[in-house]
Design a protein that fits this description.
The chain is α+β, with helices and mostly antiparallel strands. The chain is about 15% helix and about 30% strand. The protein has helices at about 105-110, 150-155, 195-205, 235-240; strands spanning about 15, 30-35, 45, 60, 65-70, 80-90, 115-125, 130-135, 140, 145, 165-170, 180-185, 215-220.
């Protein structure tokens, strides 16, 4: 986003985490989202190449897969609700067959209908589109409520001046579990941080329920990284003390 958009280029399509992220409209290139795992061989959910997509979704179920989105009791979720994603394909062809030499892990990874339990939480949107929420293991517990860190991060990330955002949990003495805290990175000088802090808080208060609004914001020059260049959230939690 910091580079000038070239007048002439040969790009026709980009595949990335989500369909049509608003900020990337500046490039004038169609962007489709997709979702997959090592276990799904290829993309089990993907955006439409020749048809409109729902912005910020990961697309719809690919034709060679069947998916289910269910609540914690196993009931199908309704449009607008977030639930647990499971997927079914052809074992050994469009879905992995088994975990090598680990029969227990294999059996625990499938439900009684043969759907693979992905461990991802997603939201069902209109027309079959799906929005990624978070890994189930990364969900925050705030006063007994489930909060997806990614939901907060997406709000913060589009605030002008923010380059990147990550949300982690911090223990709070007045809550039974923990409350959310955010850390963001941006190129502006230290003098701009108070106003950016207020802008981030205003965006969160406008877009999120009160219990999802970060209670603390910290600015860092660089995010700690894992070996795969993902944000190392364990290191961010250590910074919170």
């Amino acid at each position: 986003m910091e580079h000038e958009v070239p007048t002439h280029h040969t790009f026709r399509l980009w595949g990335t985490a989500v369909c049509e992220p608003p900020a990337f409209a500046a490039f004038g290139i169609k962007i489709i989202g997709w979702w997959g795992m090592t276990e799904t061989i290829t993309h089990g959910i993907i955006g439409e190449v020749d048809q409109p997509n729902t912005p910020m979704s990961i697309g719809r179920a690919a034709t060679e897969y069947a998916i289910r989105i269910t609540d914690d009791d196993g009931a199908p979720t309704q449009v607008g609700d977030t639930g647990n994603l499971s997927i079914r394909g052809v074992p050994g062809l469009s879905l992995f067959k088994e975990y090598l030499h680990n029969e227990k892990a294999t059996s625990e990874s499938f439900d009684e209908h043969g759907y693979f339990l992905t461990g991802d939480r997603v939201t069902l949107l209109d027309h079959g589109f799906i929005r990624f929420s978070d890994r189930a293991k990364d969900m925050l517990k705030v006063g007994g409520e489930n909060v997806a860190a990614s939901e907060i991060e997406q709000v913060i990330a589009v605030v002008p001046g923010v380059r990147e955002a990550a949300v982690v949990a911090k223990k709070h003495p007045c809550w039974t579990r923990s409350r959310s805290s955010s850390s963001s990175r941006r190129p502006a000088s230290n003098a701009c941080r108070p106003s950016l802090h207020d802008a981030v808080m205003a965006a969160c208060c406008a877009a999120l329920a009160d219990f999802k609004v970060p209670r603390e914001i910290r600015f860092v020059d660089e995010m700690p990284r894992s070996t795969l260049e993902k944000v190392a959230k364990a290191e961010l939690r250590k910074m919170l003390g």
